[in-house]
Every structure is written in C-alpha cells, then in structure tokens.
Amino acid sequence: MHKFTCAKCDSRIFFDNQACLACGSPVGFAASDLSMVTLARADANGADGAPLYRRFDDGRATSLRYCGNAAHGVCNWLTVADDGNGLCPACDLNRMIPNLAEPGSVDKWGEFERAKKRLIYGLMRFGLPTDTGAPNGRLMFDFARDVVTGHLDGVITIDMAEADAVERTKQRERLAEPYRSLLGHLRHESGHFYWDMLVKGGDRIAEFRNVFGDESQSYQDALNRHYANGAPLDWAQRFVSAYASMHPWEDWAETWAHYLHIVETLDTAETEGMEPRAAGFTLGSVWSFKKYDIYREESFASLIERWLPLVIALNGLSRSMGHEDFYPFVIPGPAYDKLEFIHNLIRSR
Known about the structure:
By secondary structure, the protein is α+β, with helices and mostly antiparallel strands. The protein is about 40% helix and about 15% strand. Helix 1 (about 105-125) runs parallel beside helix 3 (about 180-200) and helix 6 packs across helix 8. It is globular, with a radius of gyration of 21 Å.
C-alpha cells in the first residue's frame, strides 16, 4: 500500500480516510490513478443533490463526487459526477448487500467493504481486469446473511458472519485454522475467478497440472474426503495450508491468497521504510536499494529474499506484544514452486 499525504497540509492520510485528520479537508480514493486525493468543494451539486468536488491541487473543471455508498459510511472512493449509477468501480461490483434495516448490518457491510477495497486495490496494482467481457466473466460480490462462502461463475459470496470477529474466531478454532480474516477469504475466492481467466482462459492447463496436480478429479469426492478424514499427515511438506491439500483448485486459491498477502505486505513495508535488511546484507537497518514497483517489476526470487526476514521480524514483534504470529505459516519447498507459477502467470499479463 502506497503512502498518501494531504495536498493541503502535507499530513499523512490513510486508505480508509474520508477527511484529513490534521486539517479536516475531504479526501477520497481515485481509482483512476490509484491514489488518495485531497478535495475542495465545488460550486454545484450533482443531479441528485450530492455535493461535488474538485481536486484541491488541480484547477481542471472535472467534478468529482463520493460513491453513493458513502452515504452509509462504508465507502470513501470517488467517481465522476453524474456518471453511471453513482457507484465507484469497487462498489459497482456488488450484486447483493445486506438488509441495512437490520441492526448491525451497516457495520458488518463496512467491514466487508474495507476488506474488498484492499483486494480491488491490489488487483488494480497488478493490472488484472475484473471483467473479461465473456459470459459470467465479471467479478461480482454477494455479502449476505446465512449464505455459503465461496465462488461460482464469477460471483464471490461471503457470509455476514465472517464480519463478526467473535464468530470468525469460533470458526477458526473449530476448523483448527491458524488464520482467518475477511481479506483472506476475499483473496482466496478471487483466486478461483482468476484461475478461470489466467489458467483455463489462458490455455495454461498443462503447466498448471505439472505444478498443482490434476484438477479434473472429482471436486465433490475430494471435499467429502477432506471433511471426513482431514488433511494428509504430510500436508505441511507440500502445501501452504491444510485446506490447500483438499483439491488442486483449493491449492491454487490458497496459494493465490498467500501470494497477494506477501506482495501487499512487502509493498507496505517498503513504503513505510521498515523492511528488514535482506539476507546477506549487513549495513544499515532499512532497505537501502533502489525501489521497484513490487506489483510489476520484482522477480519472484527477490520477493522471497525480502519476505523471509520481514516476516520473521513481524512475527517477533507480534510475540513481543503478546499476540499470535503475524504470519503463522511455514512455506514448504513445493509451495514456493506454486507461488512462483502464480507470480509468472500474473507477470505474463
């Protein structure tokens, strides 16, 4: 995640902010240039009466407005005035949202939107499209009560219970998972969408099977076997998680989620100037080399060389505060090959 500053007072602003905490100026996320921007009130309102804005540091007449969902306090992204349905590029991907009249629904929806927007930001940084133009080829989201979390035909469905920290913890303990989060779910399920686009749609099935195995085996049989017998005893030697051992599709989705975790965390660490020295580097305390766009330019080997010392440091910091590990996973050798496959597939775009 990039570091953003207010154009009016040069104070730090954050990805979820709708106002600068120092000077009070309105701010919002402009997907067109993947940046938080400072706004100044325009002299007019939109056709629906919503306030219009311009960029504080730009004299151009283009009018901006907040996404229509800003009225519910769940979105700070911007859109062009009176353009389309008044929703930002991220909220426009919603197919189903909760009944906002039910107590607690707006708060849970807000948690979902914050996680979803980090997912969409990362996909934009990679240059990955959310619409292939084919039937069932647009990424969509359902966020509702009492549904099954998963992916089907381009639609990612998330149960509202996943936005409840207590319920999420209960599920994590029941399933003996080391980690469970809304963002993790979204990244995992997005992997299924991009499998269709990058592997199946990109005619890379043979390469995929060489790394992940034969996905044509019965998914339902694999699912039944996994929940009846659990993961194989040696799963930790081959997979990023126990669930990844269930079927090649889930192995891909779990590995995809881990790859997105790694890239955004490294990008944020570099931006904050807190990345530990790389293996073999003994001078200085922060990363001192030329900065690259981690989403576009780094090789996989350099990513991993930087990831390992960072995650060791972060786990140590987390333990120092009495918390569980920041990244409670050990990546085995075969999983690195899978991560590299995903890295190269995304870069090939």
